[in-house]
Amino acid sequence: MSAPSPRPWILDLEEYISGESVLAGYAKPIKLSANEGALGPSPKALAAYLDAAQSMHRYPVGSHAHLRQAIATVQGLDAARIICGVGSDEIIGFLCRAYVGPGDEVVYSDHGFRMYPIAAAAVGGVPVAAREVNLTASVDDLLSVVTARTRIVFIANPNNPTGTYLTKDEVLRLRKSLPASVLLVLDEAYAEFVTTDDYASGLKLVDACDDNVVVTRTFSKIYGLGGIRLGWGYCPAPVAKVLNRIRDPFNVSVPALAAGQAAVEDVAFVETCRAHNQTWRAIMAEKIAALGFELTPSACNFNLVRFPTDAKRNAAAADSYLRGRGIIVRAMGSYGLNEWLRMTVGTEAENTLLIQALTDFVATWE
Ligand SMILES: *Cc1c(COP(=O)(O)O)cnc(C)c1O
Question: Where does ligand 1 bind, in terms of residues with CB under 6 Å?
Answer without folding.
Answer: 35, 87-89, 113, 156, 160, 187, 189, 218, 220-221, 226, 231
